[in-house]
Amino acid sequence: MISKIKIFFSSLFIVAVAFLTSCESNFKDVQKINVANFAPVGEADTVNLKYTDSGKIKAIMVSPKMLDFGNVSFPYIEFPKGIDVTLFDPNNKKSFIRSDYAIRYKETDVIDLQGNVKITSDDGKILETTQLYYDQKREWFFTEKKCKLTLGPGNIFYTTGFDASRDFKDINGQAFFGEGQADEF
User: Comparing C-alpha atoms, which of 64, 48, 66, 59 is closest to residue 97?
Assistant: First the structure.
């Protein structure tokens, strides 16, 4: 009888040890599942999007790469290889935007354009800077970075801090300097 009890407990001990070791590896796998990998939920190459409203094209955006991080607490879409955007106003006049990098924050509808940012309006006005924000709801550009604003031939200004309407009809700067005064920055 004692040997049967020893065999039973020995067998039970072996099964318990085997169970615990197998659970350990499964537990580690379960822990790995719960660790959130910071990866996009969507990824696209060679993107060409057309935004329409009431049957009219409002904007065309082209980018070689798009990453959708809609799975994070403050969702955004990243364009790590830059974007080219054409905006259309109600009179079908165009503005062109180009940057080396961009992020569009979904909750605020603000786009952060970075690196060689250049905006060209339909009437030839050009804005160049290193970083610029665009508020899609208000259709308003703004930055605190240094900017170069070309309003026409021989009509070049520099400023630190800038905001303007999408069509550049309303322009505000903290301090404007003419072309010859640019070295005062």
Answer: 59
Domain spans in the chain, listed from the N-terminal domain onward: 1-35, 42-171
Fold for the domain defined by 42-171: lipopolysaccharide transport protein A fold (2.60.450)
The tens digit of pLDDT for each residue in 107-156 reads 999 999 999 999 998 888 899 999 999 998 888 999 999 999 888 888 88
Is residue 168 a contact partner of residue 127, using CB atoms and an 8 Å limit? yes
pLDDT exceeds 50 at position 185: no
Q: Which phi and psi angles does 108 have, rounded to 5°?
A: -105, -15
Gap between the Cα atoms of 185 and 9, Å rounded = 84
Q: Beta 83-88 vs 76-79: how paired, if at all?
A: unpaired
Question: d(Cα 91, Cα 142) in Å, to the nearest integer?
Answer: 24
pLDDT at 171 over 50: yes
Assigned token pair, 3: 């040997």
Q: Residue 17 pLDDT more than 60?
A: no
pTM for this model (two decimals): 0.72
The H-assigned helical ranges of the chain are: 2-34
CA distance 94 to 90: 10
Q: Residue 56 CB: number of other CB atoms within 10 A?
A: 10
Q: With a cut of 90, say whether residue 3 has pLDDT above it.
A: no
